[in-house]
Write a structure and sequence with these properties.
263 residues, 8 helices, 19% strand
């Protein structure tokens, strides 16, 4: 099933830019409320990689977890357009929880690569104050803060030392990136109130350095936030489910088990 993210006005609209405005649901029959994972595909904030969206949702379904995927806005849209879409997705899931068989207190965001940066941002940012003129609806009354996050080879830093500069450029635009990129290094936004996190990465990822996950886990540890981290010895960036790899291919099952045990 497809649902519009924004039924009326779309905040931070960039006329002429792609505005997909769609949430896809992957719901399994249930007689009790289940956890739900909201999936954001990666793509350096330039696109959304299909192999990091629907296959994830189907995997979580196979483990008894509801799922949705989000066609969030990417470049040339700039921050906070994508974050507004992510927060709206969390609110919509909670507002439809009863009819979709979802426990509104067990909503998890999941993202890969730059989608991991978006998922982590949804975990860390307060609800955005939407621009004047936004028409509120029932979903606006819900909290946008998820109950946990699954981060797959995530971009955490967009700085030059070990972060992914390309994602930062697409997120912010060149001028804003040069002036403000340090504010979007998410390891500095963790607090004692941050919900729990599951992460995985490969140690030799040559596109998004594993240090992104490591420094984020250091911040989680320093603030007493529970986390589970899997670092696999080898594998290129963008593996997705990695079903053809005996070493990495079990990650989705581990993540699903983590959701069922911890969220």
């Amino acid at each position: 099933m497809e649902l519009k993210l924004w039924e009326h006005d779309i905040p931070y609209l960039n006329e002429g830019a792609e505005t997909p405005n769609i949430l896809h649901t992957y719901l399994i029959p249930t007689d009790k409320p289940l956890p739900c994972v909201i999936v954001f595909a990666g793509g350096a904030y330039m696109c959304r990689a299909p192999h990091e969206a629907e296959p994830y949702a189907q995997c979580f379904n196979s483990h008894g977890i509801q799922a949705v995927t989000v066609d969030y806005r990417v470049s040339p849209n700039r921050f906070p357009a994508g974050l507004a879409d992510a927060q709206r997705a969390v609110k919509l899931v909670r507002s439809h929880a009863a009819e979709w068989g979802i426990d509104p207190n067990r909503v998890v965001v999941c993202g890969s690569s730059a989608g991991g940066h978006l998922a982590a941002s949804a975990l860390l940012y307060e609800d955005l104050t939407l621009p004047e003129g936004h028409t509120p609806d029932a979903a606006d009354a819900e909290s946008a803060r998820p109950n946990g996050a699954i981060l797959c080879y995530p971009v955490i830093s967009v700085g030059a030392e070990f972060g992914h500069v390309g994602s930062g450029m697409e997120l912010l635009g060149k001028e804003r990136y040069e002036a403000e990129h340090g504010a979007f290094d998410l390891q500095y936004k963790v607090t004692d109130a941050t919900p729990p996190v599951f992460l995985w990465h490969t140690s030799d990822d040559s596109c998004v350095n594993v240090k992104n996950s490591l420094v984020f886990c250091e911040s989680l540890r320093d603030h007493g936030v529970p986390f589970e981290l899997h670092v696999y010895p080898h594998g290129p960036h963008g593996l997705g489910l990695a079903q053809d790899r005996a070493d990495v291919g079990g990650w989705c099952g581990f993540a699903a088990d983590w959701v069922l045990r911890n969220i």
